[in-house]
């Protein structure tokens, strides 16, 4: 406690960001230090798990010190430790989990394991201090594409998910074949602004009627086939048009399914989560559609969309307040179901 506030210290290391945050009373961010390895993985065209784990290990102590310093607190002030324990790269996750457990054990502080995607959704509670469940959430990230019913701070029901590639993965793969580099999402976002979204028609994969599932691998292949056939025909490729047309095909499907899920749930509230929620066209289109349909929409600031520990602290706080108690023997899990 500091100044009468309950302090949560949280750790996030599921992929290529080493992050430690201090959050007061669940929603007030005192520090959110993020050490990204993006510059390292640019050279590889994607994340290399072993290298990511090694960098987490090298960085974590400095990130801890910096988070405490920026928040102007010490470990004596920390009431709760939260940590992402899955899903993610297991070697990477283990660095955050081991550090969190060591501090919790040494200082006798309670520890709570957080599902990474619950963290992404919780970023919205930091962004909008008045937001409360229930609501419908669209989770779009590097590893996930889900529409979920958020029934309470700790209970989620998944309505649909991707059957193959996650949307962020599709962005990253298409960016790679277009020669745009890693991570592809922000690059496609930028270049698509100069392109024509109707230049090339890529099929919209809606799957069965009333299904909230997604499939993006066919679209990725369609882009690849288009590029190959244009190359073979000796035609010059307009990368901005390809990026804009690919993005439009993704957004059309996501928007249609999301709006219909919000209507079916009946809460009148949509919350976006995950790295791809930083996409300007997706945000803009969903904001417009929500306005038309009188749906309240919540979108985190870009820094809260991608991996960060503040969102994990927020999720840990609400789990703790709901009576959950973690275990110092906690493990890290590459796969972890979202529902609970
Ligand atoms: N502006 C953007 N437009 C589209 N995609 C974006 C944008 N910014 C980031 N992304 C994508 O978001 C993904 C990263 O998001 P995030 O950090 O949430 O994913 P992750 O942590 O790797 O996966 P998960 O959260 O599912 O474990 C990458 O695929 C990246 O390309
Ligand atoms: Mg993530």
Question: What would you note in describing this structure?
Answer:
The chain has 340 residues and is of the alpha/beta class. The protein folds into two domains: 7-121 and 306-321, 2-Layer Sandwich (Nucleotidyltransferase, domain 5), CATH 3.30.420; 133-304, 2-Layer Sandwich (Nucleotidyltransferase, domain 5), CATH 3.30.420.40. It is 44% helix and 18% strand. The chain contains eleven helices and ten strands. The chain has helices at residues 38-42, 49-71, 90-107, 116-127, 167-177, 184-192, 217-232, 239-265, 280-292, 302-305, 309-321, and strands at residues 7-12, 17-24, 28-36, 80-86, 111-115, 135-140, 145-150, 156-161, 269-273, 296-298. The chain has a five-stranded mixed sheet, with helices on both faces. It has a five-stranded mixed sheet with strand order 8-7-6-9-10, sandwiched between helices. α2 (49-71) packs parallel to α3 and α5 (167-177) runs parallel beside α7. It starts with 6 loop residues before the first strand and ends in a 19-residue tail after the last helix. It binds adenosine-5'-triphosphate (ATP) and magnesium ion (MG).
Query: How many E strands?
Result: 10
> Structural class of the secondary elements?
alpha/beta
Gyration radius, rounded: 20 Å
As a percent range, the share of helical residues equals 40-55%
Q: Helix segment count?
A: 11
Across the major sheet, the strand order is 3-2-1-4-5
- Spatial separation of the terminal alpha carbons: 29 Å
CATH superfamily of the largest domain: ATPase, nucleotide binding domain
Please give the domain count: 2
CATH architectural grouping of the largest domain:
2-Layer Sandwich
Beta-strand percent range: 15-25%
Element order: H for helix, E for strand? EEEHHEHEHEEEHHHHEHEHH
